[in-house]
Amino acid sequence: MKPKELYNDLLKAYSDENLNLITGKLILLYKNKNYGKIREIANQISKYVPINEEHDAKCFSKLVMLYHPDKGEHFRKTIRELYEQNDHENLKKHAHIFSLGDMDHVNVTSTVEGTDENYEYVWDVKSADGFYYSKPDGENERDDGFEAAEFERSFYNMIKIREYGNIDVEFPSYYLEDFEEFEMAYCGLESLDGVEYCIHVKILDVSNNAISDLENLWDLTRLEELYLANNQIGYIDTVSNLMNLKVLDLSGNQINDVSPLFDLEKLEYVNLIDNPVPADQIEQLKEKGVIVMSEIPWTDNRLN
Question: Rounded to two decimals, what is the model's pTM?
């Protein structure tokens, strides 16, 4: 494709209308838990923009940050500057958006697609009296047909299970200090007890669990990305201390006050879908330059 042709096509692709279409469709897919389709979209652009498509919340967040209409003017300005500088190579790096040309035809379903989404086995776990597996909804079953032994489903215990398959093991807390990323989605977490030892963590995904209390996050000031989607969270006061936070997913909780986020100067993106957050607080975040996902703020029949 010639530079002039590429330039014109990119300006059209990064128009507010097209970015609204892409983002709106992504929101609908996310709200309806069509995670498989979101991962398919991520795979379409993976040649140009690597996205870890295995993690639902992160996959959605990365895609939205790439195509949100609030960044449209910035995208178009960059494209114009690259064209004027005859920087064809860097201009081509924006061409991943062409892979999403069929978003008009992506269907949204009202239920989670396929049994794999409902029954994704997380880990084989060994307790004192046998083996069982864990399901995303928190149910546990033994492989011998008997009910699984009960134990505290804390962050600390679930790390033991992930690393050793056994909670009855010596595991010094200082082992947790060396990790920069933890992926603990869909593992039936009921508390974050133990996460306070992860003092160097930068990315934490504990989405799709049963967490209600965030107090243990207070001292994790190096956190840059935090994924808390689909838990039982009502209050986020603790998040106000996470001054390096850039990406925050709170979707699918019961949060009605996000004022603790107002002083997070590095915050770039927050997902508030399916939370009863007042409109004025959402506007305050947007005025600070934060990309906010709440409900679809525009009407487009093509999204249906």
Answer: 0.80
